[in-house]
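User: Thanks for the earlier help. One more: DUF4303 domain-containing protein. Can you show the sequence and predicted structure together?

Assistant: Of course, both are below.
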Amino acid sequence: MDLPAARGRLATLILDGLGAGERRARSELSPETLYATVLYSASGFRGLVVAVNTREALDRTAGNRTGVDAGLLEMLKDHPDLLAKAVASSTPEPDVCVCDWEYVYSDLPHEDAEKLIDDLYEYFYELDWEPEPISDWFLETVSIAVQEFARSLPQNNGLLLGLQFSDPSVAETRMMEGISEMVNSPFWHAKVMAACNVLRETS
């Protein structure tokens, strides 16, 4: 397999999907205010989709998830300072946590992307590649696409961008942080870093 050509093809499919997802969200969700367009996966680099969120959707869902055991909440209800710390330390902020969002689009050319990803995994396994270099190869490819998508947007667009996993491993958490640093404003990157710290503490 020609890996440079495969990387270019996959990066293009991902870039096209991110652009389509962003345009679709602005069209279908208007007049809600779009603030996030990220690449999201529930299983490594398979099943990639585009996740978006709006300020209005965030307001609807932000209070629905604390991640804190109900019994602990009850015990701490008379100690607001401790309660606030418990919630803050155990819950990634919903504005940067895709699992709390309302909208997920399958805007990647799904069959083409999935077939190419499957073919690549099979090729890497035939070469006896270890999991880490396989992940690194896909991460570099995704990084190319996400950075190109960021460059295609107007400057100071204010969007949260990047890559997220549903239940990230330590390595995947580092990937999320690395891509965020490349494409996000300092404001959004700080929030992503805080969310990743929570994920590490609770994993």
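User: Great, one quick takeaway?

Assistant: The chain has eight helices and four strands.
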